[in-house]
Design a protein that fits this description.
Order of helices and strands: EHEEEHEEHEHEHHEH
Radius of gyration: 18 Å
CATH topology: Rossmann fold
Number of strands: 9
Shape: globular
Helix content: 25-40%
Largest sheet: 5 strands, parallel
Strand order of the largest sheet: 2-7-1-8-9
Number of helices: 7
Distance between the termini: 53 Å
Length: 203
Amino acid sequence: MASAPPQRPPARLTVLSGPSGVGKGTVVAEVRRRYPAVWVSVSATTRAPRPGEIDGVHYHFVDDAEFDRLIAEDGLLEWAEYAGNRYGTPVAPVRERLATGAPALLEIELQGARQVRARDADAQLVFLAPPSWSELVSRLAGRGSEPPAVQERRLAIAQAELDSSGEFDVVVVNDDVARAADELVGLLTAPSPGHVRSSGAHE
C-alpha cells in the first residue's frame, strides 16, 4: 500500500519595506507582471480608494468599525497608522498560503515589518533602499505640490526609515526596477536558512 506523500513544510514569509517614495509599489507591480505565480498579500486599509484602485486587488477597503473588529479578533498579522489612515495584513490568507509550502510576499511599512519580526522570527525582512538620498528627496518632492512643512516632515520620516535598514536581513537597492524585482524574487524562492539570521551588516 503506497504511503501518502509527505506534506511540504510551511514556506518562509518575506516582507518588503523601505522609506516612503522608494518605489515599493512599483517593484511589487513589476514582480506581479514578470512573475505572476508570486503571491502578494493584499492589505486592508481604512483610506478611500484612489482612481483606478480595485477592492480586493490593490487593497481591501474597509471602514473603521471593520478594522477595529479585525484588531479585536487578532485577524491582522500587523497593522499601522500612516498619514491618518490604518493599514494591516489579514493573517488568514497569509497562513493558508505558507501552509501549502509556497512563498508569500508582504509589502508593508516599517512599523508593520517590526511587528511581523516580533511575531515570526523566521520571516525574511527585505529593505528596499534608494540609490541615494538625493534620489529619494527628488522622488518625494515630485509627488505633488505639498506645503514645505509637510515635505520636511516626509523627509524627516524617510531619513528615520533609512536609518532602520540595519534591522533587516537583506538590503535591495532600487536603482533599476526590473533588476530589483528579479533580486526580490530570487530571495523569495531561496531556501530558508532556518533560524540563522544575518547580523545586520550589509554590503
